[in-house]
Specification:
Rossmann fold, 11 helices, 4-stranded parallel β-sheet, single chain, alpha/beta
């Protein structure tokens, strides 16, 4: 356990988050429902559970969004069943593949030899398209609810610190109840909520690259959280990577720059 977290009171934080959610909805949608994408991972599970406590299960809508086949879809189903919330399963595969095909067709029909234009979709662009499709799906459902909906952001502080999210994808949302909590703190909150340990402590994966989060990042969340809290990291190479990822991804956390008239 990181020393700075020895006095972390998860139950107290849960109460604070719940009140914050209630206050936010009273101001930004007194009758609106909360719409949350449910992946079956710890963050979306915890956020969904907090929303149920804050608003009641009648005002929480879960959306499961596999891209074709999702190997842990049963975890997502387990969450919505456990919480007793209304839910939809929207398979985004046709939309994702349709967009890939439309872009690739346009590229092939407009060849360019200057090196300035798209020749083909890159691996990263393909990885980041499904999260953006999912966010579009959440907003479509939110805007179609009888009393309107507000989309929950389910990011945590550790992932945000190194930019491990998709801009205008899972990094988007109308309100973010847990983005000031590290992965370590989220696990403590999940345990305090009494959520299944196999969901809260399972190996995190983006479900896109075929790798675990930690394998893809090149360091563990324990190492990252310790660095966030203490500034200490014995491995110079990992420290440099964390710093680089933090600096190049800060734009994801900032509002869009705007030219202001003088």
């Amino acid at each position: 356990m990181i020393q700075q977290l020895e006095n972390f009171d998860a139950n107290s934080k849960i109460d604070e988050i719940i009140k914050w959610i209630q206050d936010w909805f009273n101001e930004n949608g007194p009758k609106a429902s909360a719409v949350v994408g449910v992946s079956g991972g710890k963050d979306s599970t915890i956020v969904a559970a907090l929303l149920v406590r804050a608003l009641g299960k009648e005002r929480v809508v879960g959306v499961l969004m596999p891209n074709g086949e999702q190997k842990d879809i049963e975890d997502s189903k387990k969450v919505v069943e456990l919480l007793g919330i209304k839910n939809y399963i929207v398979n985004i595969n046709a939309a994702v593949e349709g967009l890939y095909g439309a872009i690739e067709k346009a590229v092939k029909e407009n060849p360019d030899d200057t090196g300035l234009f798209v020749k083909e979709l890159t691996k990263d662009s393909k990885i980041n398209t499904p999260p953006r499709m999912r966010m579009a799906t959440l907003y479509a459902i939110a805007q179609s609810l009888p009393n309107g909906g507000r989309v929950a952001n389910t990011c945590n502080k550790s992932e945000d610190y190194v930019g491990y999210s998709t801009k205008y994808g899972d990094a988007a949302g109308d309100f973010s109840p847990c983005s000031d909590f590290t992965v370590t703190e989220m696990r403590l909150i999940g345990d305090a909520l009494g959520l299944p340990k196999e969901l809260i402590h399972k190996t995190p994966s983006d479900g896109l690259s075929g790798m675990s989060d930690e394998d893809k990042l090149g360091f563990t969340y324990d190492e990252l959280d310790r660095y966030i809290f203490t500034g200490e990291c014995e491995d110079a190479e990992k420290k440099a990577k964390i710093d680089r990822l933090h600096n190049i991804n800060l734009h994801k956390l900032r509002t869009i720059p705007m030219f202001e008239q003088q």
